[in-house]
Amino acid sequence: MPEDTVVKHAKLVEVVRELITNNDVTFDDLLMVDALERLGLDYHYEDEINLILEQCYLQFTNKDFIEYRNLYEVSLCFRILRQKGFRVSADVFKLLKGKNGQFVETLKHDIRGLMELYEASQLCIEGENILDEAATFSSHILQKSLNVLDDKEARMVRCTLQHPHRRNLMYFTLLNSPKENGATVFKELAELEQGWK
Q1: What whole-number distance in Å separates Cα of residue 82 and Cα of residue 116?
Q2: Where on the tree of life does the source sit, at the highest rank (predicted)?
């Protein structure tokens, strides 16, 4: 590799490290962890990611904390924590059900949340009926939504249904992630690393 490329890579790794290193863990930190994993960059930041996830786990196990989160946030947090080996209960999804025991109707309008719920449901352990129900509910609504979504959204939904938890640059680009979460730097670092392979 040319020396200037190696130096640029090292600088980008440190810029991202600064972005994900802070004392107060927020949902944005979890979004950054998700982005780093999807781009295959997480190996650079294992210690920082573990600290973020440990703090998220403590928050996630607090019922009061979960009650004030939306479908997307609860599903994403559940998926990432479970993927990383944290023991999180699928019972958190009971908060998304109505008195009739069914997922509440208002969730049908949250496509991003339903996509994340579908991904979370793929981490079901035998006997977790609520995750089986979540998979059926979310996949049914997402399939039905394909007819009314624009092309970009429909592509993302199809990709989610066919390949839950993608780990590639194309999907990250489709997400059109907000710049305030370091998306530009993450993408630049991922492209640089892909060029090395």
Answers
A1: 13
A2: Eukaryota
Closest to 31 measured CA to CA, from 23, 19, 46, 43: 19
Query: Is 95:67 a contact under the CB 8 Å cutoff?
Result: yes
- CA 51, CA 23: separation in Å to the nearest integer? 10
| pLDDT tens digits along 116-155 | 999 999 999 999 999 999 999 999 999 999 999 999 899 9
Cα torsion through 181, 187, 188, 193, rounded to 10: 130
Query: pTM for the full model?
Result: 0.84
Q: Is the dihedral of CA 11, 16, 18, 19 positive or negative?
A: positive
Main-chain phi, psi angles of 97, to 5 degrees? -105, 150
Beta carbons of 70 and 106 less than 8 angstroms apart: no
What is the token pair recorded at 33?
Answer: 């962890």
**CB of 20 closer than 8 Å to CB of 48:** yes
**Which token pair is 65?**
């904390």
